[in-house]
Write a structure and sequence with these properties.
heterodimer, A: about 70 residues, mainly alpha, 2 helices, about 65% helix, elongated, B: about 170 residues, two-stranded antiparallel ribbon, about 60% helix
Chain lengths: ~70, ~170
């Protein structure tokens, strides 16, 4: 059985890598936009998707009582 | 010493005849050609080869696995082994070799919630700045802001996580 309890460092690393990937992905699009409202919508949507996925990836796959530290 | 019969040896040592016969058959007690026992030799052999507390063969290299029998002794042995295992596990919990998984899950959920709150309030502040920037400048700005938010989150999460994971490091902001 696989146990996916993450350390804080792993969580931080995951968030960082995902959001940096998002910023790299949207930067070329942002460079073509001038309307702050559109920019805000785009960044928010992309960040929301990334954070949703992060939450899914961090969710425990099975209920556990105790696990190794 | 003069050899004696198995029955006599059993009587002298306060043993059942069947016990002596069984130990002879198992080779723990040697007998002469007539089937008689030298008491001194037999005493030495029994002392060396038999478990003195039980009158049974000493169990060398006995494993710690519980007996598979159904008797009281077997049940008690299994219970003692189980209790020892529980005590050992409890010790590991106290030494933080094991931690409460639910607690870790709660802490991580807290970190993710904080991250969500911070990152979703960020676009409204970033939008006016990003407007008009080139690709590299926009990417650099986003990276810097993400690093800054994650650093704040790492500091904020310290209180949440330190009680279960004492080895956390501040993020490098350079």
């Amino acid at each position: 059985m696989r146990v996916n309890i993450h350390s804080e460092a792993e969580v931080n690393k995951l968030i960082e890598s995902r959001l940096l990937a998002v910023s790299a992905k949207i930067a070329p699009i942002l460079a073509t936009m001038s309307d702050p409202a559109e920019i805000e919508t785009l960044i928010k949507r992309e960040f929301e998707q990334a954070l949703d996925q992060i939450e899914v990836d961090l969710a425990p796959r099975k209920p556990l009582k105790l696990t190794k530290a | 010493m003069t050899p004696i019969s198995k029955a006599e040896y059993a009587r002298l040592r306060g043993l059942a005849r069947s016990t002596v016969s069984r130990q002879v058959a198992a080779g723990f007690i040697e007998v002469d050609a007539a089937g008689r026992i030298d008491p001194e030799v037999a005493d030495r052999a029994r002392k060396e080869r038999l478990d003195p507390s039980r009158g049974r063969p000493a169990e060398k290299n006995r494993k710690s696995e519980p007996r598979s029998g159904r008797g009281f002794a077997a049940a008690r042995e299994r219970r003692e082994i189980a209790l020892a295992g529980m005590a050992e596990f409890e010790l590991k919990v106290r030494r933080l070799e094991f931690v409460d998984a639910a607690e870790i899950e709660r802490e991580i959920a807290g970190i993710v919630l904080m991250a969500r709150n911070r990152f979703l309030s960020f676009p409204s502040k970033a939008a006016p700045v990003v407007a008009g920037l080139g690709i590299l400048a926009a990417q650099e700005f986003l990276k810097k802001e993400i690093d800054s938010i994650l650093t704040d989150l790492a500091d904020g999460a310290a209180g949440l996580v330190d009680n279960v994971k004492p080895t956390r490091k501040r993020r490098n902001t350079s």
